[in-house]
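Record 1 of the preview.
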Amino acid sequence: MSKFNHVCVIDDDPIYTYLTDKVMKMVDFSNHIEFFKDGEDALNSLKPRLRSGRNVPEIIFLDLNMPIIDGWQFLDEIVKVNYKKKVIIYVVTSSIDPADTKRAESYSIVDKYVVKPITPEMLEELFADMNKN
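->
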């Protein structure tokens, strides 16, 4: 399994982000893991980078339920950005509501809808999917 250079996790739950960091390091998932505690912080940091194509994460793991700007609002804003470089977005949430799954699928920039937690097996499956494409 090869690793990614830069991934981003947008989630307000400190326990979840702590465990995600541990799991990603355990499977040597990425050289750099960047965390944001809400959609607003993420948008403020990522929008200019997406426009310039510099220091752009290869994958964004996005929670839906967050304060200030939630995952849906993040998606609504990020689709307006003229990307210089493709970014894979995974919605990672505790919601098992089929309406949320369907709504996430309506965004062409969302590659997958994943129910928490992120596991080593899920990350390995993600690598396998990436290598197929």
